[in-house]
Structure to design on (1198 residues):
């Protein structure tokens, strides 16, 4: 008798993952080809400085937000509050600079820590109430959504730190600063999950909670740590939003929730935990961004973007099924 | 260093699972731990590995000078720290992690918060070298075979300096060659001074590998660390089965073998690997299907029910060829039911009421215009509650709150409610206390008397011999013999065990 | 040997408890205050008292009570749409967009085909059911988590909806007003009198929502399909082994969810007075809020329709009340979130009590 270690859900997810991923190579290939096609069909318009700059500038937040979701997916959790936390931290940082007159570095640090603090609350609530992280973060999302508007109502903050804003517009060797920041954070996250003891413990706990516990790894600690990390990353995304635009209002983060899931899931992260794909998440965010840019370049109706992304994921899910149908018997 | 679990008593409500059982583990030996199902092996292992706390008795470590230290385990981690490692079947590894990382997981070497990969590989390489095994250290374990996974688990136990290694049915899903390889590893560990405990049903292997043997029967150790060389296989079998079950014997029941069988498999092969399976059950007959864990009995039952593909041969029900594609069809069209061995995962809806658990199969019949009337349902539930003697506080009580025996009755009664006339009953009394077990046996015989054809799958030899009219013996996905049961325990049990072991030996 | 199970338990005895005492304990039931429905009712009553004593306009029929009932009707149906898949332990993140697509279909039927109100509604419900069934089919065929499937579906439909609107009509809404639409929107039963007795000030759409709730409640209690859906949610493997056609039940539950989403879209369009592209935009959070507040958890196997109705009412009472007290829309969210957290904590307590007493929570 073959012991059934994994739930059916997980098995099928692994199948989807192995298809979507193949390795990160497939995604990279799609990204490169997509970029090439875009560049070729727009008479090199794509390669102009401004377009390229915008492409990467507005890639920073999707990457960070995708990583923030990935951090909790790693332990089999979800975080619905990533979007609103991004908006909230941006508003708080702006308030600290504009109203409280604090210097930018302190405001930035405080905002990022605030993100981590909200993550801590999420994690503790999940562990203490033992209620599904989806519902808990649904509740905290609602609260933070309100707090976000509490900072300045629907009003706009502007005129905060010029250095921060110039950072948002500046670039090094043609690559926007904010994009480099996102890459640096991604690298740090990759090191965390790839090399750091704590990161490995999170993944162990997500991959096989029983085995992890028998190896002395606390599942509760892993859940809390993952939520804190998720909050910190959302906080950083908030700062990037701040730097990018030069003026912020509380609507920031409204449209980030669903994309935060799309990037890691396309990038090969399983909902059941135990898997992260930093490169995959970044490349997936890039591909989504490409679709966005293509829409602008071809002046297509922006609605196509969502339709295509949704269709591609659904298609991937179905083709995975068809590919595996012959080989594996159904249980 | 010697490890002793001395006079361990472990009680569960209504049952004494261990009754002064003693397990004495000397360094440099391979000891077999034997016993029939329900003898207390699993419980003893769980006590030794810190999962259960014993109600009485002591766990001792005795050093080279003979000084004992008493150990108390608050949990599995404590047992591991005391040097007791367990090798489960592929349950204890992190699927996405590499071989090296899994091996070093508990004693992960680190530098400034980062995993020291070089040191990790050194540990893993060292542990694997002690097993004389070559595995790619950087390969994720999710791609390894079962045999390789076990080796990784053993290496993992070595990484935390386990001096005692418990191997629980290590060869259940290995090929003969893989098993040989595993046992050569086990021998070399013994030669390095480890104390190895081998839990196995396969006596051939036990005699080939182990030095000493402890035999459990009814929670007691009837043989403690005896040298195996002094015993023959028959001795050991006798110690395992004892004579305690003589009173279970029943009279032989008259079954008309000339009638058209209720269920007949003719030369059936399945996608799971069954080949040439032929057997039949008459109305009112209990056909036992005996075999060791992993012999393919449950898989056969599932294939018959349409949960696995039948690739050859024919299934006939009341003489008519049947192609069953789903359980719904088996139930609705052929009145064939399957009482699963895996009560909690597949047999019951633990968070639902007893009434719903019983009635789930009859809604399809009861519904008028898609609506089930409460009164009809209640009548069915009450009928089977009374008939099976299910003891519940009320039909609204949750199935998860019942005792094991009552849960099993609920799991069975949904098939009776559905008016099945062929029942496949899989390991009906696992995890059920002795008293309830006897009642359950009477119940099964009563069902057969009422004309139901029963295919009884069990690894419990006394149960099998007490209940079955005929016993088909399965080993490695084939039927290796069949006997007409004379309900005489000694002769029948010896015969059955020989059938299996002759098969394994050849 | 013990069979490895899906639930990894280390706790001593939890895994294979040989036997328990055979004497059954009569379940004492939970104390009344631990019943989430009762708790919700009390909270609603208290809030109504507080709000009406602070602002007498809270009890004003035209200003407050009628719009409140209209809103609750929509949120109730939205909650039911989510509830039907929560019964399986699934989620339907596409509820908002199924509502939007169906609203488009209905608007198109009214505008292009000049269908009567009821016929268009039926076509819209069918469209919603079809989309939901497609989601269910993909889930059963692939075994992929409902979260991923409906998330992707939501993306796809988001695009589809705005494409559809940009090609038809003026880009954001249909101008058509089929006969009866405005009556349904503006009238209450008090507008219909026989002699001197008029009906209560209940908007005409309320009975529609109540009928939907009644039907869903009836589905999950005495019907075979509803019960088998719950059993599928309770334990998929056991359900399959009990002869339940689990795949079909999953598809049916998702189809019903789609139809209810469509109905919610219809009701909102009636309230707004137009079938427009923004229908459904605000549905995602309320779809979870109402059932979860009402005591339906995500694990599947049990639902509470009454709880969903109370959950929807509570959210609406808080919103209206705080609105009257001049709180901003955003402040409401803080309160609603905190109420949800409190409800969850109470739920945890209830679970502990239920475990101890051996009854259904």
């Amino acid at each position: 008798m073959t012991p059934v270690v994994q739930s059916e859900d997980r098995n099928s997810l692994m199948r989807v993952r192995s298809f979507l991923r193949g390795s990160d190579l497939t995604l990279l290939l799609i990204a490169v080809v997509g970029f090439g096609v875009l560049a070729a069909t727009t008479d090199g318009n794509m390669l102009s400085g401004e377009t390229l700059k915008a492409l990467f500038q507005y890639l920073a937040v999707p990457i960070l937000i995708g990583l923030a979701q990935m951090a909790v997916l790693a332990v089999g959790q979800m975080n619905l509050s990533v979007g609103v936390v991004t908006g909230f931290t941006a508003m708080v940082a702006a308030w600290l600079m504009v109203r409280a007159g604090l210097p930018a570095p302190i405001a930035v640090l405080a905002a990022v820590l605030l993100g981590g603090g909200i993550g801590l609350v999420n994690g503790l609530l999940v562990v203490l109430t033992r209620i599904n992280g989806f519902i808990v973060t649904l509740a905290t999302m609602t609260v933070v959504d309100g707090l976000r508007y509490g900072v300045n109502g629907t009003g706009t903050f502007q005129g905060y730190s010029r250095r921060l804003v110039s950072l948002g517009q500046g670039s090094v060797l043609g690559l926007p600063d904010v994009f480099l920041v996102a890459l640096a954070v991604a690298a740090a996250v990759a090191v965390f999950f790839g090399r750091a003891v704590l990161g490995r413990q999170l993944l162990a706990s997500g991959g096989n909670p029983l085995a992890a516990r028998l190896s002395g790894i606390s599942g509760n600690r892993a859940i809390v740590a993952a939520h804190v990390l998720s909050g910190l990353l959302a906080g950083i995304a908030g700062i990037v939003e701040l730097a990018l635009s030069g003026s912020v209002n509380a609507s920031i983060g409204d449209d980030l929730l669903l994309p935060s899931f799309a990037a890691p899931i396309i990038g090969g992260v399983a909902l059941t935990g135990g898997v992260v794909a930093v490169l995959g998440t970044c490349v997936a965010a890039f591909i989504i961004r490409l679709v966005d840019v293509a829409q602008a370049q071809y002046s297509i109706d922006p609605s196509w973007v969502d339709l295509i992304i949704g269709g591609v994921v659904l298609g991937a899910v179905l083709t995975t099924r068809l590919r595996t149908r012959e080989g594996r018997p159904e249980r | 260093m010697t490890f002793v679990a001395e006079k361990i008593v472990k009680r569960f409500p209504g049952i004494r699972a261990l009754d002064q059982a003693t397990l004495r583990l000397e360094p440099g030996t391979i000891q077999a731990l034997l016993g029939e199902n329900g003898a207390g092996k699993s419980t003893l292992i769980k006590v030794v590995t810190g999962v259960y706390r014993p109600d009485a008795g002591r766990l001792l470590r005795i050093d080279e000078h003979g000084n004992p230290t008493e150990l108390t385990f608050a949990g599995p981690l404590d047992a591991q720290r005391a040097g007791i490692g367990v090798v489960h079947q592929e349950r204890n590894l992190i699927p996405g992690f590499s071989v090296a990382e899994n091996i070093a997981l508990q004693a992960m070497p680190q530098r400034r918060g980062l995993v020291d990969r070089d040191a990790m590989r050194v540990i893993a390489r060292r542990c694997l070298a002690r097993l004389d095994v070559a595995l790619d250290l950087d390969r994720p374990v999710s791609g390894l075979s079962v045999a390789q996974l076990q080796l990784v688990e053993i290496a993992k136990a070595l990484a935390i300096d386990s001096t005692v290694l418990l191997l629980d049915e290590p060869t259940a899903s290995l090929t003969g060659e893989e098993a040989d390889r595993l046992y050569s590893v086990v021998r070399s560990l013994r030669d390095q001074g480890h104390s190895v405990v081998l839990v196995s049903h396969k006596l051939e292997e036990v005699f080939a590998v182990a030095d000493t043997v402890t035999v459990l029967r009814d929670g007691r150790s009837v043989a403690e660390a005896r040298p195996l060389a002094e015993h023959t296989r028959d001795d050991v079998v006798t110690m395992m089965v004892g004579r305690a079950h003589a009173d279970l014997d029943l009279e032989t029941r008259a079954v008309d073998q000339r009638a058209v069988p209720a269920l007949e498999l003719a030369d059936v092969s399945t996608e799971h690997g069954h080949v040439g399976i032929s057997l039949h059950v008459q109305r009112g007959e209990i056909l036992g299907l005996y075999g060791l864990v992993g012999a393919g009995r449950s898989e056969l039952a599932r294939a018959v029910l349409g949960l696995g593909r039948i690739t050859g041969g024919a299934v006939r029900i009341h003489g008519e060829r049947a192609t069953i594609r789903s359980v719904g069809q088996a139930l609705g069209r052929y009145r064939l039911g399957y009482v699963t061995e895996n009560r909690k995962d597949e047999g019951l809806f633990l968070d639902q009421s007893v009434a719903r658990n019983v009635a789930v199969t009859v809604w399809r019949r009861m519904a008028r215009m898609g609506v089930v009337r409460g009164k009809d349902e209640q009548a069915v539930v009450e009928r089977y509650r009374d008939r099976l003697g299910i003891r519940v506080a009320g039909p609204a009580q949750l199935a998860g709150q019942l005792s094991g025996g009552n849960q099993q009755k609920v799991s069975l009664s949904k098939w009776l409610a559905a008016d099945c006339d062929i029942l496949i009953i899989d390991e009906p009394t696992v995890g059920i206390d002795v008293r309830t077990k006897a009642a359950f046996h009477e119940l099964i015989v009563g069902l057969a008397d009422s004309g139901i054809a029963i295919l009884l799958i069990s690894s419990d030899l006394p149960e099998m011999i007490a209940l079955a009219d005929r016993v088909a013996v399965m080993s490695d996905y084939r039927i290796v013999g069949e006997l007409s049961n004379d309900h005489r325990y000694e002769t029948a049990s010896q015969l059955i065990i020989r059938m299996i072991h002759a098969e394994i030996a050849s | 040997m013990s069979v490895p199970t899906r639930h990894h338990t280390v706790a001593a005895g939890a895994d294979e408890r040989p036997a328990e005492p055979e004497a059954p304990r009569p379940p004492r039931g939970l104390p009344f205050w631990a019943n989430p429905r009762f708790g919700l009712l009390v909270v609603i009553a208290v809030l109504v008292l507080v709000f009406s004593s602070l602002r007498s306009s809270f009890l004003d029929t035209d200003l407050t009570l009628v719009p409140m009932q209209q809103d609750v009707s929509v949120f109730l149906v939205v909650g039911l749409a989510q509830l039907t898949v929560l019964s399986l332990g699934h989620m339907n993140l596409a509820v908002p967009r199924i509502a939007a697509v169906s609203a488009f279909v209905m608007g198109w039927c009214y505008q292009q085909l000049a269908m009567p109100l009821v016929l268009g509604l039926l076509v819209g419900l069918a469209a919603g059911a079809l989309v939901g069934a497609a989601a269910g089919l993909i889930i059963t065929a692939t075994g992929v988590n409902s979260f991923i499937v409906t998330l992707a579906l939501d993306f796809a439909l988001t695009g589809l909806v705005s494409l559809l609107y940009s090609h038809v009509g003026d880009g954001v809404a249909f101008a058509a007003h089929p006969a009866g639409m405005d009556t349904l929107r503006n009238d209450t039963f008090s507008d219909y009198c026989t002699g001197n007795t008029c009906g209560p000030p209940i908007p005409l759409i309320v009975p529609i929502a109540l009928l939907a709730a009644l039907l869903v409640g009836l589905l999950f209690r005495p019907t075979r399909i509803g019960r088998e859906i719950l059993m599928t949610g309770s334990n998929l493997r056991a359900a399959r082994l009990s002869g339940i056609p689990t795949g079909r039940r999953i598809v049916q539950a998702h189809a019903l969810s789609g139809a209810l989403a469509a109905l919610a879209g219809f009701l909102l369009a009636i309230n707004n007075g137009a079938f427009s592209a923004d229908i459904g935009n605000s549905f995602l959070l309320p779809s979870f809020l109402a059932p979860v507040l009402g005591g339906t958890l995500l694990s599947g196997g049990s639902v509470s329709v009454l709880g969903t109705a109370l959950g929807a009412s509570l959210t609406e009472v808080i919103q209206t009340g705080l609105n009257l007290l001049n709180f901003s829309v955003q402040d409401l969210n803080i309160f609603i979130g905190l109420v949800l957290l409190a409800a969850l904590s109470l739920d945890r307590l209830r679970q502990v009590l239920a475990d101890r007493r051996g009854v259904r929570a």
